[in-house]
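Changelog-adjacent note: as of this version, every example in the card shows the full chain rather than a window. The one below runs 378 residues end to end.
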Amino acid sequence: MTTFFSDFLLPLVAGGTVHVGAPLGSAGLARLRETKPPAQVVGGLLAARAAAAAELLLDPIPPSLDLEALRLAVAVHDLLFLFHPRAASISEKRLGEVAAWAASLAALPPSVDPDVLVARHTVLHRLHDLGRTDVRVSFWVGRREFHGEEPPRRLTAWKSVRRVREERWRVSCFAEAASHPLGGNVAHALLDGSPLTDLLHPVRLEPRLDLVRRRDLLAVPSLCRAVAYAWLDEGIDRVGGALAAATLGALDGTAPAAARLICALLAHLHLCALLGVPVTVEGGRMRLALAAGADQSLRDFYGLFAALHRTTPDLCAPPDVRRDPRLMKRVDEHAAACLVACGPTRVAELATLVARAGGPIALSATGGIAPVGTSDLR
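Full-length structure tokens:
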């Protein structure tokens, strides 16, 4: 079992090629708990996880190789096995059992403890980067596909005579699993077990980001700040569309308290990014320099701020900013630029949705959001 730590867990955490073997399940987890991994591997795991934790918390507790870490690792391993070429020889019933066990292992107890959640995330922080290269070999009498494996030489020989053609493409292992009936439950269980991992990778196809589902985590100041600043580091032009879609999903009127928190978080992102957002000046007015072809979701990110500025001004700036005329002038100009970027008609539609959030709320009352002070915008 020592090879699991060196060939799978270490590259999963530190980067590299992960090697997937037979499914482990609960029995394999029990054997892993009794196995002492090599000291060099343990040192590499601790260093990689500590580095990941330091990116989120100022003074994190060094993550240990405890039962929760092993449960998450085994769940990922068995999830990947479901889509391994060797799984094709296993019955659907058995694969269903593997998936059920993996989901149960990933189902960790809910927590809002920053050190607990950061420790879990350090195991899965590269989860969305997991990928494989698939190959399709076409030849004169047919074609074959190979998932994560190199085709045998006999298929690629005599390329000109046999009219051999190779096509290669990269597949996201987690996205594939999340969109598949067999792996979907496991993928959801992993993100529920490590909700920080869910929040810190907002740009994806499946499963869609659900901020209402993470309301309790976002209400913890240290966690909310870590998430917000990670999004800002990634870049609004990249994550803004996904965040707008998740915010709109919260404005259905079913969870007004969560909707207010999420709207406050979106406004906080705008204020933090205000100095870094590329703008041009036309006719004395600010204009956001959106990239050519920016999709509607990204425009909605800016339109939501304009809608908040129009309908719930208390969400757009904390009290100290509102008391400073110079800073409020900048906020007003930014809201006007957001209005132009999104379009007045769409902003009017968004304003109607924002009204469902339940009316004005002071930014400082959201709990999970540290208000931007005057010194941050000067």
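Structural remarks: The first helix runs from residue 2 to 14.
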